[in-house]
Write a structure and sequence with these properties.
disordered N terminus, 40% helix, Nucleotidyltransferase, domain 5, alpha/beta, 156 residues, 5 strands
């Protein structure tokens, strides 16, 4: 659940969804009414400074009011090392962009995205190049579809 010390994202306005990775960041964006999530980009990480500039530029361009970072939790719901990395990344993103950040359970998002990509006639290389942004879209869509984001166990 969202802890009282964690900021919550506004319920109106564009949100960015980020699928954290050490090499790539999948980026998705919502509509201003938060009804639809769309894949935006697979960003290849370069350096802390370049990554911060990219994320700030995207947040500014889309006038994002908040950011949702996917949290890789175990099937049991417990958080491991990757979840700690994602939380640290989210805190850093919040500082870099000046936007509130919350975390959302991303279990199964890559599998759902990969299954959707398998339905296409894209090459394996092209599917791989789109996987992270589609996983970010699935995660953000799941977040948006939740009736009360602060009351469900998925809001972490």
């Amino acid at each position: 659940m969202t802890g009282s010390s964690e900021p919550t994202v506004p319920e109106k306005g564009v949100l960015l969804g980020l699928d954290y990775g050490t090499k790539h960041i999948g980026v998705a964006v919502s509509t201003a009414d938060q009804s639809i999530a769309s894949p935006l980009e697979n960003y290849t990480r370069r350096s802390e400074k370049a990554d911060a500039q990219f994320l700030k530029a995207v947040a500014d361009e889309y006038q994002a009011v908040g950011i949702v970072v996917g949290l890789p939790v175990h099937m049991s719901g417990d958080e491991g090392g990757k979840a700690a990395e994602a939380r640290a990344f989210g805190a850093w993103v919040g500082e870099a962009t000046g936007r509130p950040v919350c975390y959302w359970d991303e279990r199964h998002t890559s599998a759902v995205a990969e299954a959707a990509l398998m339905q296409t006639d894209m090459s394996k290389k092209k599917r791989k190049a789109r996987l992270d942004m589609l996983a970010a879209q699935v995660m953000l869509r799941n977040f948006l579809e939740t009736d009360d984001r602060r009351q469900l166990p998925g809001a972490i």
